[in-house]
Amino acid sequence: MSPETSKSHFRKIQSFKTDYAPCTITQYVSDRSGMQVVVADRKGPKLNGYFTLATEIFDDSGAPHTLEHLVFMGSKSYQYKGLLDKLSSRAYSHTNAWTATNHTAYTLETAGWDGFAQVLPVYLEHVILPTITDESIVTEVWHIDGEGNDAGVVYSEMQAVQFRSSELMDIKARRLLYPENVGFRYETGGMTDALRVLAPERIRQFHRDMYQPRNLCLVLVGEVNQDELIQILEDFEESIKDDIPSLDTPFKRPWIDSAQPPKINETQIVTVEFPEEDESVGEVLVGFFGPNCNDLIQSSALNVLLTYLCGSSVSILENVMVEKEELASSVSYWTDPRPDMVIWLQPTGVATEKLEFVEKRLFELLKEVASKPIDMDYMRECIRRERRQVKYHAETSESFYATNIITDYLFGKRDGSTLKDLKDLEEYDVLEKWTDQQWRDFLSKWMADAPHVSILGKPSHDLATKMKKDEEARIAKRKEDLGPEGLEKLAKRLEDAKKKNYEPIPASVVDRWRVPSTDSIHFIESDTARSGHARAVGSGTGSAQKLIDGATQGKLPLFIQFEDVPTNFVHITIHIGTSEVPNELKPLMPIFSDNFFNTHIMRDGKQVNFEQVVMELERDTISYSLHSARYLSDPDGIMISFQVEPEKYAAAVEWIRTMMFDSIFDPQRLKASVTKALA
């Protein structure tokens, strides 16, 4: 059935091509269930699905996180744990999920459309109609084992992270930013004390409230047969129509129909202790409210400004606080897209006795930047680099489309007008015309002069000792209260739950699904050419080899292989062995790696300082790095990587030669690298 026929309940809202990458985005909505579907259709062998629900809760119970696990324990028609995974493996697929503060996403990564189409309806039934049995809650969420200890998959996950410095600082910041009636305040993963008292019915009620088709968006990135997709979804909706609420029943759109956070009236600086035996190093976390994430110009300006401030070793915050004054090992930044975005700055590796000073110094620098003329040449380079990186990620990463589409589903307009912002990159044209004063006003409004929350993360050996003793005392008292008989009952309860959950899946059930054909897997074609020592392996037979053979051949003492693939960019990777490096020097490799692109060079007999080197590298590239060759099964090797536009290929080759042979090992630069490594 075609999605265009009158029989379909799925109505096409819009379809448009992106002008910066070969992709067509099509948006549908079901007039029967309210389910949304967005397809980012682009060529390639992989198809990725992100089945996204806007999930909002006003407590730390962890109910959203529990469902991320319970969904995979079986559904109304398929009541076997692991069936979905077995089916996926037969269909060249892989399943996963994540829980964020504002949504839960279930993923399906597949080679080709046929496998995806086979798994899709089974997966969706697991999401909409999971079994959520008491037994699955016992093993997957929380239980007390026969030894009196807390266990369970979700509980163990949260126990491992809850008292990390990053988690404690984050939750404190959110408690300060948001009042009790705003869901962003809470830990959706679940706090351990709340997980221990989480009732099964609370989980089931949360599922009934949030896991409705009208609160679900299917995001597909890859080659999709859209006629077949709509027919599959039509059949799926028909199969669940008696199990879901009608569109006439009341429903509040999470995050949009809820209370919005008030503005920050005054700055708050709070110290948070975290358990740590080494009390020498702490962290600083600063949070501001930013513009609305649906304001494309403002949110893009924010990304560019953050790159300008702390995107590299020549950016003002990194250059001063890390490279020159050595107050931190890095200055990280990120944003949370929301109706009121949150801007985060995080100086890490800060000496504990300097936490207050570093927080103060951060704002001195922000105010200094806002009070003086902006380096407009560097700002324009940041804008152009941001544009290049968007084009690159749109071509190479499925997460580019998925992240933007999910954000639009959560906070954008349902008529598709905000989604259409993905059509082009005109926002960068607008930003290139911004004046010095506009950038300074923007910085002052959202950061330099803005009320904010600052969290000073302070390590505490005493807290670590106290928490360990308190936990041991709690468990000891529990064992005493339960006694041998109580512990035996809990052990039997757990064993019974495992027996129920791990019932073997009959082969006849799995065999109901065929292994799909590989015909729908459209591999990327590559034309190989070789030169230098690589010719010993054999030469290519296509046009790429003819082109290489026709080029001026110098003496190449290297193994060089070219792959001609359909791309708008050039990817250069140099694999270097380290077998000749003496063992006693290998511990210095991390220092060498950090210093490689952040050092002075000699050019035409003159020294060029590292700031100029980094600025020129950023101008000529999309990205560059030196990292381990581990993924090439050579954990001792290193790799130099460049991603550039085709016209910058020669510049990239020249940079490789320059950084390998013309760099200067400056003691001050090496000291900065050592300081960062030790932080």
TrEMBL record:
Residues 200-383 form the Peptidase M16 C-terminal domain. The keyword Phosphoprotein does not apply. GO terms for molecular function: metal ion binding; metallopeptidase activity. Residues 60-145 form the Peptidase M16 N-terminal domain. Gene3D superfamilies: Metalloenzyme, LuxS/M16 peptidase-like. It holds the Pfam family Peptidase_M16. SUPFAM superfamilies: LuxS/MPP-like metallohydrolase. InterPro entries: Metalloenz_LuxS/M16, Pept_M16_N, Peptidase_M16_C. Keywords: Hydrolase, Metalloprotease, Protease. This is Metalloprotease 1.
